[in-house]
Design goal:
Keywords: Lipid metabolism, Lyase. By secondary structure, the chain is α/β, with parallel strands linked by helices. The protein is built from eleven helices and nine strands. Helices cover 49% and strands 17% of the residues. The chain starts with a strand and ends in a 6-residue tail after the last helix.
Length: 249
């Protein structure tokens, strides 16, 4: 499989959109837009009744490519924010249900993707968190709040700590926790069950459920992004980002 974003059709009615950006699936700006396009395209296909969002490698997603932002500055930051916004929205607005298959680490932008998915299957080694405060950024609390209760969300956000898959399963946001080598099969099993329903009715159901959500995830996340730019303009973001990783150098 070539690096980047790819789409496969392993069985009738199911599309699998896979991200592969070694070594840790920290997506560059173009990667976020490619992912958004792939998810939207799969959802537009009348033959698709469920989308599985997956990733190759050690972990599901490590967020944005900090090295790219360091190298290119404000333009890359704007691109990353726009790309994340589009990718998160594409998952939420996908016309059919989206199953996230999460292994290893799911951090930063990964939380935005998974929090906007319709259901989540995770491997036993999966961990979820927002290390944004350690990386000079803010955002995706909107999506973490869809995975854990409010006070836990705040504790995880302020400490940059992670929660394991079993904890999220206990909170009801992860459907199943399985061994890593069983992850893809478990995600496809759930997708197959969903895809067995009538495609037209599934699309109506997705629109109806989104319509009764108490939080407008697009507006909420966009509000958060404004504080990322405030931190950038004030110099706080660059100071924290420049120190990121150097303590272990």
């Amino acid at each position: 499989m070539p690096m980047g974003v790819s789409t496969s059709r392993p069985e009738n009615g199911v599309a699998v959109v896979t991200a592969d950006f070694p070594p840790v699936n920290a997506l560059p700006v173009t990667g976020w837009f490619d992912l958004a396009h792939a998810v939207r395209s799969a959802g537009h296909d009348p033959e698709v009744r469920c989308v599985v969002l997956a990733a190759e490698g050690r972990g599901f997603n490590a967020g944005v490519d900090i090295k790219e932002i360091r190298a290119e500055g404000g333009g890359a930051l704007i691109g990353a924010n726009r790309g994340c916004f589009e990718a998160f929205a594409a998952v939420y607005e996908c016309e059919v249900p989206v199953v996230a298959a999460v292994q290893g680490f799911c951090l930063g932008g990964g939380i935005g993707l998974v929090g906007n998915a319709d259901t989540v299957v995770a491997s036993e080694d999966a961990v979820f968190g927002l290390p944004e405060l350690d990386r000079g950024a803010l955002g995706a609390a909107t999506h973490l709040a869809r995975l854990v209760p409010p006070h836990l969300m705040r504790a995880l956000y302020f400490t940059s700590r992670t929660a394991i898959a079993a904890e999220l399963h206990a909170h009801g946001s992860v459907w199943r926790v399985v061994p890593r080598d069983a992850l893809r099969a478990a995600a496809l099993e759930l997708a197959r069950e969903i895809a067995a329903k009538d495609g037209g009715l599934l699309r109506l159901a997705k629109a109806a459920i989104n319509g009764i959500d108490p939080v407008d995830v697009r507006r909420s996340y966009r509000f958060e992004q404004g504080f990322t730019f405030e931190a950038q303009l004030g110099g706080t973001a660059a100071r924290v980002r420049d120190a990121f990783g150097k303590e272990n150098a």
